[in-house]
Amino acid sequence: MESHGSLENHISAWGVSTSLTIQMTLRAAIELDVFNIIAKAGSGAHLTSKQIVSQIPTTNSNLAVENLERLLRFLSFHSLLSTSQTPNPNDPTIKDTSYGLTRDTLCLVPNENGFSFAPYLIWCSEMHTFKSLSMLKCTVLEPESSPFLKAHGETMYEYMSKKPDLCQLFDKVMRLHSHIYYEQMVFEEYKGFQEVKELMDVGGGDGSAVAKIVSVYPHIQGINFNLPSVVARAPEYQGVKHVDGDMLETIPDTQAIMLKWILHNWDDDHCKKILRNCWNALPNNGKVIVVEYCVLPEVIENTPETKNMLLVCDLLMMTFCTGKERTTSQYDALAKSVGFIKTKAFPIYHGTYVIEFHKGNVGS
After folding, report:
1. Can you give the pLDDT at residue 34?
2. Which residues are 257's β-sheet partners?
3. pLDDT value of position 210
4. Can you tell me the distance from the alpha carbon of 268 to that of 112, in angstroms, rounded to the nearest whole number?
5. Residues paired with 86 in a beta bridge
6. What residues are paired with 355 via a beta bridge?
7. What CA dihedral angle connects 119, 35, 350 and 337, to 10 degrees?
8. Which of 6, 25, 149, 159 is the most exposed place for a label (fewest CB within 10 A)?
9. Tell me: the pLDDT tens digits for 77-133?
């Protein structure tokens, strides 16, 4: 067994201790538009730091080239940029390094629909996130509170309501997740909207998700239900009515309810309150359609999906909202504890599930 003083342990500790540097270097590259500049040069393109800086406003281009080279070199050594060597035009004996996108950084460039993963990386590297994560120990020392509340003195939703720029960034993140995990996956696999005539998206953000459903299933009357501050900035959509209110107080009567990325925000007691309000709002043959993109497997194994996404999301929910990611059996237990009699789970892709809670009897 290696001693604690071995050089190998020190090097590993450096890597763990400075992982934040990778995230912040990626953020800097996004804000400098580096990935888009490379992408615009064409598929598989490689550009030198000098070529990239020529498209970035700077007060000192020579020093900017030197500093950007250091940033890009760092990213390349973490396999976030590919490299190639080309002769220097002024001195053929010198090789210049050119940088290209990898599979991991391609997702930071807008796709054909205008979506990229960049807003989520920016959100996760905002100061409110770091301050909240610095209080993670409070989940053990004072488990009745949340790290976000300890760091900022108010809940995440109260905090965001006073910061329009942060709300806009959060809306971008939600639209991104809706595009990736909802529009591209759920609609291909889940057909349970076909039988619905009226659908209320509870906590539905700006209403874009229910608007998408109505566009695919025009026989559905869509309702977007959210807090007054959220509904006030929501755009109008054909076939969608905006209704303000608080799901923790009461939910208006409706035929079917969608909870998209809602329950993982809350602890079990709040989930039961929300689901009980859903049960009260539904007719006997009504159902709740739950969409979650980080449903845990019943047996957790060390896979890239689990390590990089599912367990990270679980910690973030605990940090921001006192929520948590759950297994399908845990969701089933929550639903049945408030009166729903049947649960039907539809696995979609890499932890994304649609889960139906039925108030009355339904065929298998």
Report:
1. 98
2. 200, 288
3. 92
4. 39
5. 96
6. 290, 345
7. -10
8. 6
9. 999 999 999 887 788 778 899 999 999 999 999 998 889 999 999 999 999 999 999
Q: Using CA atoms, how far apart are residues 65 and 77, in angstroms rounded to an integer?
A: 18
Please answer whether residues 182 and 291 qualify as being in contact, where contact means their C-beta atoms are separated by less than 8 angstroms: yes
In the 3-class helix/strand/coil scheme, how is the chain assigned residue by residue?
Answer: CCCCCCHHHHHHHHHHHCHHHHHHHHHHHHHCCHHHHHHHCCCCCCEEHHHHHCCCCCCCHHHHHHHHHHHHHHHHHCCCEEEEEEEECCEEEEEEEEEEECHHHHCCCCCCCCCCCHHHHHHHCCHHHHHHHCCCCHHHHCCCCCHHHHHHCCCHHHHHHCCHHHHHHHHHHHHHHHHHHHHCCHHHHCCCCCCCCEEEEECCCCCHHHHHHHHHCCCCEEEEEECHHHHCCCCCCCCEEEEECCCCCCCCCCCEEEEECCHHHCCHHHHHHHHHHHHHHCCCCCEEEEEECCCCCCCCCCCHHHHHHHHHHHHHHHHHHCCCCCCHHHHHHHHHHCCCCEEEEEEEECCEEEEEEECCCCCC
- With beta carbons less than 8 A apart as the criterion, state whether 196 and 220 touch: yes
Q: Is 152 a catalytic residue?
A: no
- Cα 43–Cα 72–Cα 22 angle in degrees, nearest 5: 110
d(CA 205, CA 262) in angstroms, rounded, equals 11
pLDDT at 171: 83
pLDDT < 70 regions, the chain: 1-17, 184, 361-364
- Strand-pair partners of 201: 224, 258
Point out which residues pair with 87 in neighbouring strands.
Answer: 95
**In the block, which residue shows the tokens 């996130």?**
129
pTM for this model (two decimals)? 0.84
How many CB atoms are located within 10 Å of the residue 258 CB?
27
Q: Position 135: which residue type?
A: M
Reading the block at residue 112, the tokens are 């054909």
Closest CA to 128 of 175, 103, 160, 96: 160
One-letter amino acid identity for 246? D
